[in-house]
Amino acid sequence: MNNDLANANLKKLVLKLAIPSMIAQFINVLYGIVDRIFISNISGYGELALAGVGIAAPITTLFTSFSFLIGQGGAPLVAMKLGERDKKSAERIMANSFLFLILTSILLTVIFLTLRKPILYLFGASDNTYEYASSYMTIYAIGSIFAITGLGLNSFITCQGYSKIAMTSVVIGALTNIILDPILIFNANLGVAGAAYATVIAQALSFLFVFIFLLSKFSGVNLKFTGYSFKTLKQIIAVGFSPFLISATDSIILICLNAVLKSSVKDNPDLFISANTIVLSFMTLISLPLSGITLGVQPILSFNYGASNNKRVKKAFYGMLSLCGIYCIVMLILAQLFNGFFINIFNPSIDVYNLANKAIRLYTIGVLLLPFQWACVDSLVGLGKSNIAIWLSLFRKISIFALTVLIPQFFSPIYTFLSESIGDLICSITSAIVFFLVFEKILNKNKIKEEVLDSID
Questions:
Q1: In a domain? residue 110
Q2: Is 381 among the domain residues?
Q3: Number of separate domains in the chain
Q4: Which residues contact 401 (CB under 8 A, 6 or more apart)?
Q5: pLDDT in tens, 112-124
Q6: Which terminus of the chain has fewer CB atoms gathered within 10 Å of its CB, N or C?
Q7: Which tens digit of pLDDT belongs to each residue from 318-343?
């Protein structure tokens, strides 16, 4: 294994795994943001095209959330099996995950292509923006097998301690996307379709890199094509349901937000949706790198929990929480004081700029407490307690969804952007309270298991 999860200096190990994972997720954000930047600068229809791609964005996130269900469901189990020195079971878990990723991506593609028009209109498209949303999503859906499978398999590289390799796969995709976007959008005159083609090609290269690495001698656990079982699949889904729920319901809330803005704004709702696209692009700069930190440290938790080393589990958690806290403080300052620099890269009209500026400030008020939400929930997943994590995730999503629907009924539509902040403040506190109530109990049970095993030895 590339990193000694059992014995290496923990502070250095946390940084060594968390920072590349955070950077990888930060770069991953570029997939969507770079597309939107180039699209917004298309002469003549950039603003409408941006709104169309903004409608497509949460649907693409919903697609990739299934990679979390499988990848982040199987990866902690693999790390635990490695902690228990059971490599054969680890390979079986990865094999089942790979097959499930392939089948899921095919099913999602068929569903979307069959119901494309009603889905896009339901989720906020108008007659002005449907053409752009449909063009982007159709191409993306056809190539989504690369996004879902590549992202899902990348979790199995991270869980072995190869964070830099996992980061490299994302860098390959991001650089490819950045290079191809202007060529296909402007030089080939493909417009929105060019952005989608660039994304699919980039994701295909990332998938190929991950696939080859997991087959190679350099991977501690190799990808096999045998040992399939429904029992293993159920275990993967049980662990992965919480990260899936976080990502999928995030997408649903964003889709709901677009739909609410479309119905509650009487004059020019597409203007609000264009601004919302910029707001959500900024929010991914917070949420995905934050997730990168927690997922980078998660293998340390899972491995040492499997090895019954409670002391290292505790230290890893507090290291994770500290890194998340530092990142969120920096991003809150940027959101409140310097968001104009980010908005301007989308070449907005003055109306879109003013809306996005105010919306980002409202949307990010609750960011300061987000480290507790992410660190606590993802730690519970890493410790195999996904049932608790699921309820905490559901509470947050239901709260934000309810606020998104209710606030426009009583206040100006701009205050709809407060729903995320209010939900984050309430639910982060709740998650922290629940986590610290159960954390010691989880570790105490692990200590009892260790004592029983020692007595047998």
A1: yes
A2: yes
A3: 1
A4: 249, 252, 253, 256
A5: 999 999 989 887 7
A6: C
A7: 999 999 999 999 999 999 999 999 99
